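Possible regression after last week's pipeline update?

I re-ran a chain I had predicted before the update to compare outputs. Posting the input and the new output here so someone can diff against the archived version. Not blocking, just want to make sure nothing changed silently.
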Amino acid sequence: MPLLDEHVREEVKREFADLTGKVKLLVFTQEFECDYCAETRALAEELAEISEKIGVEVHDLLGSKAVAEKYGIDKIPAIVVLGEGDKDYGIRFFGVPAGYEFSSLLEAIKMASSGDSGLSPESREALKAITNPVHIQVFVTLTCPYCPLAVQTAHRLAVESELIRADMIEASEFPHLANRYGVYAVPKVVMNDRVSFEGALPEKAFVEYLLQAAS
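New output (post-update):
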């Protein structure tokens, strides 16, 4: 049974009407699939059915160890969103991007297709000062209406700078990480394991924390 009903498929088709470059979704799972691996794989495959610009590659986490290591995948389910020519923008999803986070997946695909972060000129200029890698982890739940803003801002930053990687992490699917980083409210953003904040902050404030993490 499809995950996306006909109404949602039509909405997605309209969202994808302006895709320019091709996008590839790398889905990481296991032969004995985890709780949400089947849903994550099915979601990616259904999106690929909607647009010829989208392709899907499914990898077993252990069987494709070299590929997993290349993209920094250490937990499943996971999706890596690549742009034209397999360009890696640093966009990652850990956990099924359903619920409110479905919109984040759609936005990530559109960003990877265009190669444009959509950030303000001020933010673009500020990111030029970054010389050290920054790893952003955005902890979310699928029922949180404010979480997509944080996820999408993080992904925009990753698209803009090759030094930034941004992960969406569904907190309930990875409780050990939620405990490690003290996730008691979402969205919670953790940068380089040492700078963190809660809430969906405006882009300018998000960038200020990023610069602090990169310093």
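Follow-up from reviewer: compared with the archived run. The chain has eight helices and eight strands. Marking as no regression found.
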